[in-house]
């Protein structure tokens, strides 16, 4: 399931950035903003505890680093395709 704010950010990124490199850069930045959103809402506490209980340490043997890397990838990999689609749709129409 993709969080709706990431899709909305992708639409806005694609609508308001002109060269595709700006879409890419804004999507990279959105991954960081998404992590801040998750941190402010305290969503991370239960998910990191779940990773710790499961023993799933994908990066550097740390459930915390693993969690933040996954969240960044979710924000980035959702915003980039949506932003690219909107950007290309603006070019075509």
What keyword list fits this structure?
93 residues; elongated; mainly alpha; 0% strand; single chain
Structure, briefly:
With 93 residues, the chain is mainly alpha-helical. Helices cover 81% and strands 0% of the residues.
Shape: elongated
Number of strands: 0
Mean pLDDT over the full residue set: 90
Number of helices: 4
Could you give the topology of this structure?
Layout: H1 4-16, H2 20-40, H3 44-54, H4 63-92
Helix pairs in contact: 1-2, 1-4, 2-4, 3-4
Summarize the structure in words.
With 93 residues, this protein is mainly α. It has one domain. Helix content is 81%, strand content 0%. It is built from four helices and no strands. The chain has helices spanning 4-16, 20-40, 44-54, 63-92. Helix 3 packs across helix 4. It is elongated, with a radius of gyration of 15 Å.
């Amino acid at each position: 399931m993709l969080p709706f704010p990431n899709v909305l950010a992708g639409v806005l990124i694609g609508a308001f950035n002109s060269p595709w490199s700006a879409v890419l850069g804004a999507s990279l930045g959105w991954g960081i903003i998404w992590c801040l959103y998750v941190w402010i809402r305290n969503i991370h506490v239960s998910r990191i505890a779940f990773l710790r209980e499961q023993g799933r340490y994908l990066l550097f043997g740390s459930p915390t680093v693993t969690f933040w890397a996954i969240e960044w990838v979710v924000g980035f990999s959702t915003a980039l395709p949506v932003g690219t689609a909107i950007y290309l749709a603006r070019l075509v129409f």
